[in-house]
Design a protein that fits this description.
About 40% of the residues lie in helices and about 25% in strands. It is of the alpha+beta class and about 90 residues long. The protein has a single domain, classed as YaeB-like fold (2-Layer Sandwich). Strands 1, 2, 3, 4 and 5 form a 5-stranded mixed β-sheet that branches. Helix 1 runs antiparallel to helix 2.
Length: about 90
């Protein structure tokens, strides 16, 4: 399946990676690598995560406190956010 990011999700990914990189050199790269690994898991098994109210699914990053909510549309996985678990409740 093809994985696409909404523009806002792309911006959130870059902002989070830059923030981590500012805290410790290399940490931003580790964050992006983890997100890429999560995306590979989604692409391989898009239906593995349960569907939630609103029709979206989400997968948690194993180390960093982020999750990726996504929709499945035909042959595409659309990532709508790179969301921090403790910010913006109900995001």
């Amino acid at each position: 399946m093809i994985v696409e990011f909404l523009e806002e999700a792309s911006q959130e990914l870059v902002a989070a990676a830059l923030w981590y990189e500012s805290k410790q050199p290399g940490l931003g790269h580790r964050f992006k690598t983890e997100v890429e690994s999560v995306l590979l898991n989604i692409a391989a098994n898009p239906l593995l995560q349960r569907e939630r109210d609103g029709g979206y699914r989400r997968i948690n990053c194993p180390v960093f406190p982020y999750y990726l909510p996504y929709f499945i549309r035909r042959d595409r996985i659309i990532v709508v956010a790179v969301a921090h678990e403790h910010r913006k409740p109900g995001y």
